[in-house]
């Protein structure tokens, strides 16, 4: 069982207003900054747990609440909420999270990392394209939705993707095409991993039963290594 980490709900300036999120700190109180971006279900206990796990690895992890407190476990409702959050709005809100971390005394890095799942995986790529060299590592898990950007010319981060060969929401052939597009347009270091698994295989609370523990463990280990190597 992971060591308990200090955590708190925080507010930060974003997109001309105030945004909220869940902040998990390492035992030392300081570390490199990482943004954790939610799935279409909202800022669930699972996403908070991901932030806690990153804090246990030494990161200052901030999970912004993109839905303003709304959470669901119904796929139709989640799809409606995702459709109401266009890339531009979500990326602006997440830009405030980048500003918050880089201004924090708890953050020791000059860049931040970004890791996200499902809709959040799309927003990881959008944020990396928007923020350029302020993002040290971008780690999308099976990114889908309108958050997936059309262009990756602004990406400067190392990109490590995790996608399922059995993913019907974002088929592997689309992920492979995306991998090549990012590499071609950004010139950044890009590496995608493909797993014998369906969509959302990392989520151990997934209401659709797609969790695959072995694949999730391997993807997590790779992700943590990528973040540690590139967020400085």
TrEMBL record:
Superkingdom of the source species: Bacteria
Gene3D superfamilies assigned to the protein according to its UniProt record, in alphabetical order: alpha/beta hydrolase (3.40.50.1820)
InterPro entries referenced in this protein's UniProt entry, alphabetically: AB_hydrolase_fold, Dienelactn_hydro, Dienelactone_hydrolase-like
Domain Dienelactone hydrolase: 21-229
SUPFAM superfamilies the UniProt entry points to: alpha/beta-Hydrolases
GO terms for MF: hydrolase activity
Protein name: Carboxymethylenebutenolidase
Organism for this UniProt entry: Crystallibacter crystallopoietes
Organism ancestry: Bacteria, Bacillati, Actinomycetota, Actinomycetes, Micrococcales
């Amino acid at each position: 069982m992971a060591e308990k980490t200090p955590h708190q709900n925080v507010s930060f300036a974003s997109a001309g207003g105030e945004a909220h999120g869940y902040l998990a700190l390492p035992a030392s109180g300081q570390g490199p900054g990482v943004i954790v971006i939610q799935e279409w279900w909202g800022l669930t206990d699972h996403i908070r747990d991901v932030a806690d796990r990153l804090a246990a690895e030494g990161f200052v992890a901030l999970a912004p609440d993109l839905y303003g407190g709304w959470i669901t476990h119904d796929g139709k409702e989640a799809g409606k909420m995702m459709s109401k959050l266009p890339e531009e709005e979500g990326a602006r809100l997440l830009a405030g999270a980048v500003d918050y971390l880089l201004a924090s005394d708890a953050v020791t890095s000059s860049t931040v990392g970004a890791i996200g799942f499902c809709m959040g995986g799309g927003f990881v790529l959008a944020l990396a394209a928007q923020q350029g060299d302020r993002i040290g590592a971008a780690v999308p898990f099976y990114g889908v939705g309108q958050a997936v950007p059309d262009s990756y010319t602004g990406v400067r981060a190392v990109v490590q993707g995790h996608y399922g060969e059995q993913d019907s929401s974002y088929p592997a052939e689309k992920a492979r095409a995306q991998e090549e597009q990012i590499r071609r347009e950004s010139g950044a270091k890009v590496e995608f991993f493909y797993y014998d698994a369906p969509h959302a295989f990392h989520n151990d609370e997934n209401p659709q039963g797609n969790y695959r523990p072995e694949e999730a463990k391997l993807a997590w280990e790779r992700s943590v290594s990528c973040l540690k190597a590139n967020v400085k």
